[in-house]
Amino acid sequence: MRTRARSSQAIQRGRVGGHVLLLLGVMLVVLPSLTACSKEKAVGAPKTRELRLAHNATTTHPVHKGMADMAQRLERISGGAMKLTIYPSEQLGTEREVLELLQLGSLDMGKVSAAKMESFAPSYEVLSLPYVFRDDAHCWAVLKGDVGKEILAAGEENSLRGVCFYDAGKRSFYTIDKPIRTPDDLQGLKIRVQESPTAMALVEALGGAPTPIPWGELYTALQQGVVDGAENNSPSVSDYKHYEVAKFYTLNEHTAVPDVLIISTHTWEKLTEQEQAWLQQAADESVDVQRGFWKESSDAALAQIRAAGVEIIEPNRQPFMDKVRPLLERYRSDPQVADLLDRIEAVESSD
Ligand code: GCU
Question: How many CB atoms lie within 10 A of CB 145?
Fold first, then answer.
């Protein structure tokens, strides 16, 4: 109980602080970057190109570690000519707010879930559809191949250029006090989802009532019973201590939505060709390193969730797959989605 109260207070403090810090963050981070741009014009290209990257994970999360690796590589590869500063834990806002800052050109880079990109580039939605990948090897062959590259490029017309995907494992349901053993158990339950039409449609197809809430507000929403449960991968459930409030975790693994690193096209177009190449190389090289961090931490996270007294349920996935089939058929009636899904299916697993 004491731990729960302490963590909850800490998270509350973090959230309140987060909102105040958002404003301060925009003043301290974004405004200097705008002045820097104008100075740059007056005195020529700066010696060190400094970029700022914001995201919503903690610094112990494997996706943050992947980006920290990228930052080190970038500095090394560019011989110190480029530097990346990372702002974690929603310091500069929710994922939606980060994407808006990127569109304005007030922030250089951001990491979001691919689900959040759907409203800016529709082709991202296939990545949020259920049971799209046969296994990890298939998923990564798709993400690193032509389909993945095409999706990354699709945000450009909205100023959001995708740089690379990062592993965000598989998403599964967790609930406060009602165990989910079959899809029927979701009937009528309020389930927090990301701000993504496909995630909403998915929970609806399974009989639940989808409730979009920003990630940083979810602990409190669970604690206050605003929702009955949520869905995510084990490192995220563990890092945000949602196991303190949700006592059942059902590994039905309905989606494998990756994370995606985005650069504002306003920043990208300011970089020299050499700088663009360094940045892309550092990002590409960090992907496999990040996947390694993911593997290490997802098992440890699951063990931590179990140790906290959460019942881990390993259900038969077939009834979940059967129940979402009509949803997949509905999406397939859009020829562009059907084409992407066919191409994804045709990709051979590579590793
Ligand atoms: C994952 C993902 C985050 C996202 C979160 C969510 O943790 O990595 O980028 O914000 O899910 O469900 O909102």
Answer: 15
**pTM of the predicted structure, to 2 decimals:** 0.90
Chain segment 119-168, per-residue pLDDT in tens? 999 999 999 999 999 999 999 999 999 999 999 999 999 999 999 999 99
Contact 89, 57 (CB under 8 A): yes
Backbone φ/ψ region at 348: left (φ over 0), alpha (ψ -120 to 50), beta: beta
Looking at the DSSP bridge assignments, the partners of residue 212 are: 193
What element of type H or E holds 162?
strand 160-166
Residues near ligand 1 with C-beta < 6 Å?
56, 63, 95, 112-113, 168, 194, 215, 232, 236, 259
- How many CB atoms neighbour CB 310 within 10 A? 20
- Assign 248 to helix, strand or coil: strand
Q: Name the residue with the closest Cα to ligand 1, atom 2.
A: 113
Torsion of CA 330, 336, 337, 338, to 10 degrees: 80
Residues in the chain: 351
Give the bridge partners for 259, in sequence order. 113, 166
